[in-house]
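Q: My labmate handed me this sequence with no annotations at all. I'd like to see what the chain might look like in three dimensions before we decide whether it's worth expressing. Could you predict it?
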Amino acid sequence: MRSSPTRSSQTISQSNATFMSRVYFWMMLGLVISGVVAYSIASSPELMASIYSNKFIWIGLIVMQLAAVVALSALINKINALTTTLLYIAYAALSGATFSVLLMVFTTQSITQVFFITAFAFTGLSAFAYFTKRDLGPIGSFCMIGLFGLIGFILVTMLFPSLLTNAVSMTINTLGILIFAGLTAYDTQRIKNLNPVHQSSEIAQKAAISGALMLYLDFINLFINLLQLIGDRR
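A: Here is what I predict for the chain of 234 residues:
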């Protein structure tokens, strides 16, 4: 006996909702871990001094952070679900350690306000992408091209610091907000469409972590660009 199209559609919809709830759970857990680590380090003058007064420790944190995200992205099909989950948690913790510097530069009230603005914007963008029937692929492609162009321009300003005026910095942050807003919507739709329905729990867990990592990166970059654009410095 064949299932009706309506019943099949409802099953797929329920499966998508279950999968995306797992993705959002791991994404939010990553944000909580990063926030707790950042606050813990910023609250300890000794830890802050040991990290930011020693360039080798600082560079080591960044290298380990990059290594964790590269390992997750490149080796996810070769490692098991437990290793994938532990790498994600490690990446979130390392990100929190590097983000602790934000608590030194910006006021706590400003960080809180920008975080809620980011959360509101992210929720709206992700919800739109989840429910829309429109293909957001072209937006994603355009944003990816823009991201590579923005990274290239940032590298140029690092080589020639005199180019990084206030106007240029504002332009970079504004473009960053637009790019990661677009990527938030695009990634949400892409993750939803990759729902590993009827796959093993191992594959489903790795897919949820992979999706959470993408949305975590979108959220964090949206937050940082907004903070640099409208945040109040100490």
